[in-house]
Specification:
binds pyridoxal-5'-phosphate
Length: 379
């Protein structure tokens, strides 16, 4: 790709930090993990941070630590990454898909209560594309129905709601550091929580169920290897130190895209600000106007890729995935999810994207939209 969809922002100091870990005998469960965990907890403003091998691992451990198991129902959006529902199925719990708001594409609080049953145990609140969900209403519903809340902040590190960082509102919050994220550890994730008992359980579960009081090779619980290596943590520490600059550059890129594409009537652009919230820009996703079919959108994606410009569908709803056709799930009316997902189109978006590259992406997109429009007109 001439201009990829995403790219990590790796500096010389990151390379040096990783190399210096490789010169030590401690490549896992060492001082960098501790430093990274403290740094994440401090950044979010919570008591405990636990490094894990991925965002998925973090979500799975939250499900386990909250005792969510067979037959328990958990409310989740379908307009998100498949991991959100997968971690429930690992434990034989039932994902209950609830629709999203058309503007922010986050769980619609107005539709949650109708989906709650005697079996409902929790809500997974995803901060889609880095825009915080309507937390005060969702937390209020959870409180009234005695439900746990897992905040999936995998796409939203640094985002804020009412001036507080997301991740710290629920029983636990989860971040992900895959290379397309705002900051990366290569692969990796972190769980944050104010609940120290839950933090100890998660620490044990990520390390084969070995609790703090267990002896060497003694395992009190059934656990996993979800550890995060010192190499990943060294990279994460440096990235987290630069996060303010990274987030403001990403916001600047989103503004530039909006400025350049504002005139194109075939597009609905992402909103740059939402009341009570600070967005942490994860991806830049535009939506095609209502008159265009999904086939046309897919053609546009293909044509952009053919021109060397990374472009992708974000997201294909979970309930429509082949892996979910025979799964034990419950769904409510998902018409907003289905319609909006068929119109979404992600454009190249990463910290080091240059202004000339933004011009090139927008120029090509406008041309491709024009072509797609004339193809549509001629049938
Ligand atoms: C909303 C959401 N949840 C969970 C994950 C899973 O994170 P990971 O890929 O690190 O397992 C992602 C990753 O993109 C995500 O976007």
């Amino acid at each position: 790709m001439k201009i990829p969809l995403s790219a990590p922002d790796i500096q010389e100091e990151d390379i040096e930090a990783v190399a210096s870990v490789l010169r030590t005998p401690r490549l896992s469960m060492g001082p960098k993990l501790e430093e990274f965990e403290h740094a994440i907890a401090r950044y979010v403003g919570v008591e405990n941070g636990i490094g894990v091998s991925s965002g998925t691992a973090g979500l799975h451990l939250c499900v386990r630590a909250l005792g969510i198991g067979e037959g328990d129902e958990v409310i989740v959006p379908s307009f998100t990454f498949v991991a959100v529902a997968n971690v429930l199925r690992y434990e034989k719990a039932v994902p209950v898909f609830v629709d999203v708001e058309p503007e922010t594409l986050n769980l619609d609080p107005g539709r949650i209560e109708a989906a709650i049953t005697r079996r409902t145990k929790a809500i997974v609140v995803v901060h889609t594309f880095g825009c915080p969900a309507e937390l005060s209403e969702i937390l209020d519903i959870a409180r009234r129905h005695h439900l746990c809340v897992i905040e999936d902040a995998c796409e939203a590190i640094g985002a804020e709601y009412d001036g507080r960082k997301v991740g710290g509102f629920g029983d636990a919050g989860v971040f992900a550091f895959y290379p397309n994220k705002q900051i990366t550890t290569g692969e990796g994730g972190a769980v944050v929580t104010e609940n120290s008992r839950m933090a100890s359980m998660i620490r044990a579960l990520r390390n084969q169920g070995r609790t703090e009081s267990d002896d060497w090779f003694q395992h009190s619980e059934l656990g996993y290897n979800y550890r995060l290596s010192e190499i990943n943590c060294a990279l994460g520490i440096g990235q987290l130190q630069r996060i303010e600059a990274i987030l403001s550059r990403r916001e600047e890129i989103a503004r530039k895209y909006n400025d350049k594409l504002r005139e194109n009537e075939n597009l609905r652009l992402p909103v740059l600000s939402v009341p009570r919230r600070k967005i942490s820009w994860f991806v830049y996703v535009v939506r095609l106007s209502g008159a265009w079919s999904q086939t046309r959108r897919d053609w546009i994606v293909k044509e952009m890729n053919r021109r060397g410009i990374g472009c992708g569908r974000y997201f294909a709803p979970i309930h429509l995935q082949p892996a979910y056709q025979f799964a034990s799930v419950r769904r409510t009316d998902l018409s907003v999810t289905e319609v909006q997902a068929s119109r979404c189109l992600a454009l190249p978006f990463f910290n080091r994207l240059q202004d000339e590259q933004i011009d090139e992406v927008c120029g090509n997109l406008c041309e491709v939209l024009y072509l797609a429009g004339s193809l549509a007109a001629s049938g």
